[in-house]
Amino acid sequence: AMAGVVVTASAGGSVVGSVTTKADGAFQLGPFEGGLDYEVRAEKQGYNFVSDGEGGFRSVRMGDLPVTCVDESGAAVPGVLLSLSGENAGFRQNNRTGADGAHSFTGLEPGTYFLRPMLKEYELSPASQSISVQEGTNPVVHLRAKRVAFSVFGFVKGLDGRLDKHASVVAINSAGSTVETASSEAGGEYRLRGLKPGEKYSIQVNTAPSAKHERATPAAVDIVM
User: Fold this and answer.
1) For every one of its 225 residues, what pLDDT tens digit does the chain have, with 9 covering 90 and above?
2) Which residues does the UniProt record annotate as the domain NOMO-like ninth beta-sandwich (predicted)?
3) Domains of the chain (ranges plus CATH)?
4) 5, 49 in Cβ contact below 8 A?
5) How distant is the alpha carbon of residue 161 from its chain centre?
6) What is the CB neighbour count within 10 angstroms for residue 134?
7) Phi, psi for 172 (deg, rounded to 5)
8) Cα angle at 66 between 63 and 68, to 5 degrees?
9) How far apart are CA 183 and CA 188, in angstroms?
10) Which residues pair with 203 in a beta bridge?
11) 139: cis peptide before it, omega within 30°?
């Protein structure tokens, strides 16, 4: 028996009756007008209900999946993209860890789930894993993040000294290949991500014929990460 379950009857899209179960789990609705088709639903946070075929309901307690991510120093890592898919091909959720490096997937039906974390410039461990969520259980996933690449920040200004937005800035490696591209924001700032330590890069404003700018000073800034 379960208390606090809201049982609602509706007909033609309109609610015609609602009641909350007591400690014995029993409920009674009606009387209702004859000649109509009625839909009766049971709801309680954290549970899924299915009809038992005899006018009642069977409850399935949903599970939660808390996920935390820290770096090698133990500091929280925010912004990690968590892609969770289920054995049911129609289930997929994508969320990011918050400022505390954590996120909790809630209301999961019992079953097997597949978690894949992603964050540019970081190597995440485990890179993927299969997780079994049993009825009413809350398995906790702990992720470790190791930084394997870095970013370059800067500003672009026009000849009049004003900060320039929508400028295309590129990072070119020692082989002459463009490996990262960024556009300056409204305040002229840009960020080139994913640059590997120990590598030499040439940071340039894109002056290709199709680009916004024809020339830039300096033409390039060489750096070693």
Assistant:
1) 889 999 999 998 889 999 999 999 889 888 888 888 888 999 888 788 888 888 888 888 888 999 999 999 999 999 999 999 998 767 899 999 999 999 999 888 888 999 999 999 999 999 999 999 888 778 999 999 999 999 999 999 988 888 888 899 999 999 999 999 999 998 999 999 999 999 999 999 998 877 788 888 999 999 999
2) 3-51
3) 6-61 (no CATH), 63-147 (2.60.40.10), 150-224 (2.60.40.10)
4) yes
5) 39
6) 11
7) -115, 130
8) 170
9) 9
10) 171, 221
11) no
CA dihedral of 202, 205, 211, 215, whole degrees rounded to 10? -110
Structure tokens belonging to residue 25: 């789990």
Yes or no: say if 124 and 80 are a contact pair by the CB < 8 Å rule.
yes
Per-residue DSSP letters for 76-111? Answer: B-TT-EEEEEESSTT-EEEEE--TTSEEEEEEEPSE
